[in-house]
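User: Hello, can you help with two protein structures?

Assistant: Certainly.
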Amino acid sequence: MSSENRLAAVDLGSNSFRLEIGHIDHGEFQRTEYIKETVRQGGGLDADRNLTPAAMQAGWDCLARFGERLAGFKPSEVRAVATQTLREARNRAEFLQRADQILGFPIDVISGREEARLIYQGVAHMLPASDERRLVIDIGGRSTELILGQGHKPTTMESFRVGSIAWSKRYFPDGQFTRKAFEMAEVAATAVLDEAFDAYHPDHWDSAYGSAGTVGAVGDVLVAAGWPSGHITKEGLDWLLERLVAAQSVANLRIPGMREDRAPIIGGGLSVIRALFQLLRIESMAMASGGLRHGLICELLGDNGYAGDLRVNSVNRMARKFGVDTVHGQRVGKVACALHRQLSGASTSSANPDHQREWRTLQWAAELHEIGSRISHSDYHKHGAYILDNADAMGFSLSELHNLSLLVLGHRGKLRKLGAALDNQEWVCQLMCLRLAVILCHARKDPDTQGVNLLPLEPGATRMQLNCREGWALAYPQSAHLLREEVLAWEKTPWKLAIAGV
């Protein structure tokens, strides 16, 4: 396979970790390799919602094998994401710090709605073109995603904290199947999913599709038993329920088509899918071949020039929603990026992907730095940071949104509140450029930056210097005053700012 057009997606699910590798052929992705390992990390959360040492080690071991296969891939060719288990895990930072190193690529923990969007994108791209209104359901180990959409465009997306591993641990803890346990599990699942009824009412969709693990496991068993392939019906689910109750336990379960790794969690998965059939009045669900990892491949195709960046639309949507002065935000972003190019010693046309990523992030932070102004003028940076930390922004991972929130939080005021973020040189450079740009643009008009430049930062240096041309401070006394105040602000951090000519 040519190394010039290959792509890979890594999905760290609650039940399984998956790696998909393929190449681009005439703009389309062709799979060449697929690896799945049952890690069942979703069962490794303790009572305090921390991943146990054994669960973390199992994940690291799997990622080491994936990492060996991905050796030689470029960062732009790989996308790795984690879902509900790591969304919940309190010690996810500990797991991810080592996981990123072992895999060799950063792992993004994505929000439930972002997961839903990617699932729909993956399913839609594997289905024939159609104008039908689709309901897509993905029942994972610890979450269930419901999406409505038409064509390639999702319109309604939500994630619910109910899944095959979580429900199996709660209602079938000893692997025992009883009719009473199934009744309790279905009632509990319906209670969680009940709020979905209005948004996902049968009047809002024409066809239902099921994606990924649980649906596939149930479908495999039904096909092996002689039920029609490609669809799951209520009658088929009733038949499977009777078989599980008759078996009484996982140990006694002998059903053709039931994979060994799926048997311990089939009780919880079946309960959730039956609850959805009943709640949403589903008569037949088609089994979709696409899923989350296919959505990731679609995103990679976009990053490699085959489609647009969805994050731009998300930033614009948030700016409109919160009434941001977009002209001023773009002005600040333009100045901030210019300063950052000076600081990094890179040209505007730099092809370095790290520089491109840093400039995109800096531009977005600048465009959203006043997003909290509608709530409070004096503390708008704090409210803006909260909004970004809790927003559902399509295309962004949770870590990307948190990075933006920290930049918005730190663009004004004291710096001590940023804590450990100040240990990251790359991020500090972005923050300093953003703060300086906000100062230079304080009059809300294009600033005079002729002869104002930020000297390139030497490797390992902690002191940055801004030079201003002779007479600039006299022409702009308020800007000069704010810059002198900025020097004092950085004195209380490990980083220092010097300004010449002010």
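That covers the first. Now for the second protein you mentioned:
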Amino acid sequence: MNSRATPDSEATFTGNTFDKYGSTNPVVRRLMSGFLRDLDACITMAAPTSILDIGCGEGILTHEWAGRLPNGGRIVGIDLDDPLLQAHWEQRRAPNLEYRVMNGEKLEFADNEFDIATAIEVFEHVSDPTRVLSEMARCANCWLLVSVPREPLWRITNVARGAYWSELGNTPGHRNHWSSRSFRVMLSNYGEVVKLRHPFPWVMALVRLRD
């Protein structure tokens, strides 16, 4: 999730500043093809009947997943309060899909309410990743699915294309950084990392939660 600052805080980011999902740039399309292929493989393996999507942004993935859940299974997407996001939500509706304004550090759901909790391109932005992960693990009864930029590859790629030189390639709004190894180590605190994928330049993990 490449993000923009919300109207009330320059330090809080929501949504996509660059439409990587709808881009016509052939390089971006190729990168996103690999990313979405690995994401689809993880969702297929988890086979959820209900999904909680943290930091759902404009709801692009959330809406797509709503159409794939068996028997109209429940899906809820949450993000911070941003009128621009909510306008997108109105355009991406489904009978089994609900959007809520909510902070991932304090989820207003019961324990084990969903099969899987997802956070796709979110954790690089949040102030307390472990708190959000703990809340996700509390609300999910089977799985976590999380992706982040893979470092230092992400920043090296930015520098190579002439972006964010003054920030040493760090994308605005990225507070946290993980290598593939450090990402696995963090997630292993919550369960077994059964899939670790590396669609360039990201790292993605499917975690089977402990009982």
